[in-house]
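Section: Multi-chain targets

For targets with more than one molecule, the full set of components is provided together so that the structure can be written out for the assembly as a whole rather than chain by chain. Components appear in the order listed by the source. The example entry contains two components.
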Amino acid sequence: MNEAKSKTQGAVQTTGHAWDGDLQEFNNPLPNWWLWAFYASVLFALVYWVLYPAWPVAGTFTKGILNTITFVDSDGNEKTTHWNTRALLLKDLQESSEAVRSQEYLDRIAAASYTDILADADMMAFARSMANGIFGDNCAPCHGAGGGGVIGLFPNLADDAWLWGGTVEEIETTISNGHYGFMPAFEETFNAQQLDDVADYVLSLSGQQPDADAVARGKDIFQSSVGGCYYCHTAAGTGLRSQGAANLTDQIWTIADVTGAASLRDKQAAVKRVIANGVERNMPRWSGRLTPTQIKLLTVYVHELGGGQ
Amino acid sequence: MTESGEQALYQSRVRIYPRSVKGRFRNIKWAILGLAYGVYFLLPWLRWERNVGPDQAVLFDIVQRKFYLFGLVAHAQDLFWLAGFLMIAALLLFFVTSIAGRVFCGYFCFQTLWTDLYLLIERLVQGDRVARIRLDKSPLGANKLLRKAGTHLLWLLAAFWTGLTFTLYWGNAPELALQWLTGSAPFPAYATTLFLTATTYVMAGLAREQVCTYMCPYARFQSVMFDADTRIVAYDVARGEGAAGRHKVTRNLKSHQQREQQGIGDCIDCGYCVQVCPTGIDIRDGLQVQCISCALCIDACDAIMDSLGWGRGLISYTSERQARGQISRIWKPKTFAYGAMLVAAIAALVWSVSHQAPLEMSVVQVRQPLFVRLSDGRIQNSYELHLANKTDQPLQLAVMMRGLAGAELDIGELTSLRLAPQHSVRIMARVRWEYGHRTKGSRSFHFDIVPQQRQEIGMISAPATFFIPGGEQ
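Its structure, encoded as tokens over all components, is:
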């Protein structure tokens, strides 16, 4: 009996076909459990169709039964919808253990003073990763992903020059209320000679060495009512925060690309363009769009980018 | 359908009723099973004193990303230990398999262990092989219903406890078990337990040898390591078949002498070796892909040979070479290579685990923007430092830097950085350096972290680079 059994086990059946005389097809039957696993997956699909959104039907789709999701939407209303991954995500963002933990941190941040936050490595690390997302969504389109800004258009937030102030309170005010930065155009006030002279004087403030006579002439225009530049930039040229007027004596240039210009001539041209055309920059107000805690996180984040003041 | 209608497209399983057997290898297998179950089922309940962290000896905390193994705490960044452990397991499997064949399959694989447990339950409730076959053939009645239901119920209980035990490794065992049973455990605990209950029940109770034959990849790739010197369970054909084949014990073929005279071998064709086989093969047909080297047929045949007084070893552990009457070699280049790699991997892992740094730091440079020009003409680069305190004491740390003459380090208000035990934090460090007329490029320097009170930990350093933009200012 054993021998007979072993012989049938070893031989492979063929389907009985023969093509071209001798070409045959083996029949290696699949095990039955495989077949049942296939039926089970068909059954699974049927159950799935009933419970979950599945079939498109004339402009809409089957919603699935016995399977709804209840979540709180952004307006604070409780909503119940058919099963869908978007609602699942919203629910998760509010109720998952990670969401609860992050809410604990947010509550801590909301309650803490800036002094406490800046001295706490844990809260700083949380603020950095949380604000990185908020910054990316709202601020990065202008200021760039790392706050590097764009010369001529948007200020660099990662350096140590603060047009409107670099303390946490000043940064918070800036984000909350926005700012309107303005410098008038002097194209029609100055003639070409005056424009050259003022540009030379401005360059001399930060250590460049243009023609000394031109600098002296430019200084007269700058410091008198002819140009009136000192109204905002102050007599020392160090700028005025209440006006958002830039410090002209440091090495940072946010509008005229002096740093990037190769020769003194190009630097003059860059400064002249700004004096001739003026500046008008607008940062929107964020207090209505972001929550106070989000603004607080952003404040800490921006303060840390360049080291703050 | 095919033209020949009688042909089967799907093959139904040939039901196997393994018979129980007593013997050397069965005893070894029971001992291994007892040890393995003792460790698996009791380990989560073992308590362990720790200054910080749970009081459970073995706990894998996914949420905190900490893995507690007795006195060792593995953090997420130590995960490569797991890779090392798996490599050791793989090399051990290669090494053992190339010498001794499918030892893992026959003695240690959880499929084998749980199938053994399920067979034990089956035997206790329904009786041994003959009784089970009879029960299956008998019409459905109270006795059959009770015994069948009892078996499946006990199987499910064993499966459930297996699944729950696995889950308990991932949380505080007493608390989690209580939560589970009172319906307040988290969803993953239920999903894991029920999934493993289902797989244990299906694999060990219903699928059994089909797992080894059809599903398991290890069975397939272990055969790659086989050669003529590998230990295999084999039937001694020369002795068993003699010149005229095997034959049952009959009146004329009773004594060894009688059989020898007629050329009949020592195999009395009792079929015991086939009946005890958990995969339902006949070892006398030679080495087969289904054979998991569990050696139960050796126990069975030895028992028969003992009772006849003919000497053991008709079925035995041997090798192809040995079966041909030659001497098989264990130590050859292949086994030396596997052995050497195994020893090297174990040494590397032991070294790595025993040299776990109590304090770790890694530095990532902020690359956007890569540098910033400051108002006084200096250049600023920013770095994020990731600091991990792996001790169970709080550490007071000072952050310093060296390697850039005259550079300024600014870590904001975090001047007294206190790192809680088993805790990590990321801080932002800004480095400002005189620009001068340095050439464009990167300069290497080091961040140093100095523990303030516990001097024995010592300073740790991490390299970083400072980027200098080119051009004049």
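Strands of chain A lie at 13-14, 26-27, 30-31, 56-57, 60-61, 68-72, 78-82, 179-183, 279-283.
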